[in-house]
Amino acid sequence: MFRQLIGLVLLSLAAFGITPATANVSDEAYIVESPPVIEFGELRTSGDTGRADVLNPTFSGDGNRIFYELTVRAMTNGELDNFDVVSACFFTSSAASRASDRDTLCGYGQLNPTVAPSDPDPSLALSMAWTTDGTFRIDGSSNSHALGASTHSTLETSRTINSESITYVAHRLKFQFALSHAAINTSDWTVRVVAVSTPTLENGTKGNPQRTELLDTSCSTSYVDQIEIADCGVADTYGVTFYGGFSSSTNRSVDYGSVNENSSSAVRNIATASYYANDAATLTIKASNFSASTDEIQLITTGVGDEKDNKAITLECNATAVGSGAGQLLLDSTRQNIFTGLPRSSSESNGESPKDAPNHTCQLHYGIGAAFANNVYQNLVEIGIKDGDTSTGPTVNAVEIPAA
Predict the structure, then answer these.
(1) Is residue 125 a contact partner of residue 118, using CB atoms and an 8 Å limit?
(2) DSSP states of 227-296
(3) What's the DSSP call for residue 391?
(4) 33: alpha, beta or left, given left = phi > 0 and alpha = psi -120 to 50?
(5) What is the pTM (predicted TM-score) of this model?
(6) pLDDT per residue over 162-188, tens digit each?
(7) What percent of the chain shows pLDDT beyond 90?
(8) Would strands 54-55 and 239-240 be described as parallel, antiparallel, or unpaired?
(9) Integer Cα distance of 50 and 216 in angstroms
(10) Least CB-packed of 247, 340, 341, 357 within 10 Å?
C-alpha cells in the first residue's frame, strides 16, 4: 500500500506540472569603446616612396614649394563618427622634450585634448589637424607652412593582440604639407600624432573624450604597447636643412656720382640686405668690372692707390659692425664674406619676417683710361647668403644663394 500510494502522489505532481526548475538570469554589460589606436609611417617626399631623412623649408612666395606626406591611421573598435580630431605635429624636440611642452607647442594636450595651439612658433613647429567634418587645417595664422593635397578615407582592418584578432574601423589620413622657411636648421625634428574620440554611453549621451598620443613609429602597430605605456625607445628624428634668401625689397643700387681721373668718390653708406635665414648666416659679396658699351675697366685688389695712372678701379668696402663685420674688403669677382655669425631671421618675434643685416660703406677709386668719358659706367655687385653654422643641422654644402 505504501509503495502504491507514493507512486500515485508522484504521478499527481507530474500531472499538475510541478517539476524541479532552474532560474535563468540574464547578465549584461555595455562595453565602451577603447581609446583610439594610432599608427603612422615615416615622412616621405610627395611622389617618392623612400623615407625623407632631410626636409627642405621653402618660401611661400617663390612658387617652388616642396611637399611632404605623413600617413596616419586612427583606429577604433567603436564608431568612426565619435572621433573629434586627429592632429599631427612636426616639431623640433629640443623645444619640447617634455609632455607639457609638447602640449603647449602643438596643442591637443592632456588637459584640453580638442583645443588647437594658440599660434605655434613656425620656427619650432608645424601643427596640422583633421576633424570629422572632413576638414584639414594648419593651426595658427602667423606662419607660411602650407597644406597640399591632403586626403581622407575609411577602412576596416584587424590587428592581432595577445594572439586574438581584433577588428577595427579606421580613418586613413594623408597629411601633405610644405615647411615654412622659418623652420630652424636642426637634426632633431620629430612627429607627434594625437587622436581624440568621445564614446557614446548606454543612455545615448557622450562620455569624456579619450586621447591617445604617439611619438614613435616603432610602437605604432602595437595596441598593447600603447595602453601599457611600454618603453618605445628613442623617437624617430628628421633633419631640416638650411634656408637662406632675401626680401624682394632688397635694393643695393649705388650711385657714386662723377669721378675724375686719379680721384675717388665720396664714401657711400649702403643697406646690405634684408635676409631670411633659419640658422646663423654668413653674407658674402662680389663685384664685376665696370663697363660702358664695349669698354671695360677692371677691378683690382692689390691696394687702394694702385689704380692711379692705370686703367683700373679699386672698389673699397668696409663692414665695421662689431662681432660680424669683415672690416676692409677690396672687391672683384671673387666672393668674400662680408658679415658672419648673423642671427637667424626666425629668431625675431615674427619668425616669418626678414631681418636687416648691418649696413656697410663703399668708396670707388678710379685711375685713368675710360674710352667713353662723360658716360655712365656700371657694374654688378652680388650679395649672397650661406649657412653660418654647419655644425648644427644638415646643410647643402653651405650653398651660396645670391640676392635677386
Answers:
(1) no
(2) HHT----SPP-BEE---EEE-TT-----------TTEEPPPEEE---EEEESS-EEEEEEEPPEEETTEE
(3) T
(4) beta
(5) 0.84
(6) 778 889 999 999 999 999 999 999 999
(7) 64
(8) parallel
(9) 18
(10) 341
Residues in the chain: 404
Strand ranges of the sheet holding 210-214, from the earlier edge strand across to the other edge: 135-138, 125-131, 83-92, 189-197, 210-214
Eight-state DSSP code of residue 183:
S
Grid cell 620629430 in the structure block, residue: 190
Cell 599631427, located at residue: 88
Domain spans in the chain, listed from the N-terminal domain onward:
37-240, 244-402
CB 355 within 8 A of CB 401: no
Which has the minimum average pLDDT: 112-116, 228-232, 398-402? Answer: 228-232
C-alpha cell at 288: 664685376
pLDDT tens profile 81-106: 999 999 999 999 888 878 888 999 99
Q: How many helices (H) and strands (E) does the chain have?
A: 3, 27
Question: Residue 275: beta bridge partners?
Answer: 246, 355
What is the C-alpha separation between 355 and 274, in angstroms, rounded? 5
User: Residue 279 pLDDT > 50, yes or no?
Assistant: yes
